[in-house]
Amino acid sequence: MSSQTVGLFEAKTHLSEWVSRAERGEEVVITRHSKAVAKLVPMTPTRQRGGNERQAAIAALLAFKPISVPDVSLKALIEAGRE
User: Fold this and answer.
1) Is the dihedral angle over the CA atoms 58, 63, 67, 68 positive or is it negative?
2) Which of 24, 19, 27, 23 shows the shortest CA–CA distance to 3?
3) What count of other Cβ atoms lies within 10 Å of the Cβ of residue 13?
4) Any domain includes 25
5) Bridge-partner residues for 39, per DSSP?
6) Residue 27 sits in a domain of what CATH number?
7) Which domain holds residue 10?
8) 49 phi and psi, to 5 degrees?
9) pLDDT tens per residue, the chain (83 residues)?
10) What is the pTM of this model?
11) Looking at the 3D structure of the chain, how many domains does it have?
């Protein structure tokens, strides 16, 4: 992955160009008074990956089989968990 460094004034003046470079896979480090203060990086497909993870979690919850514990009330279990 390629990386560029650009001053804040230049970044503001040509922001669309620097964003386009980030879209193409470049990292753009923005400096103020020669000190790095921000970085433009390409977006990763986290939204799609997050959706798949959510769907998997929902499927796991829907497939969950309740456990039956004879002769124990829910209240007793909650109280035992608080001890």
Assistant:
1) positive
2) 27
3) 11
4) yes
5) 29
6) 3.40.1620
7) 3-40
8) -65, -40
9) 668 899 999 999 999 999 999 888 899 999 999 999 999 998 876 555 556 888 888 888 889 888 887 888 888 888 888 98
10) 0.51
11) 1
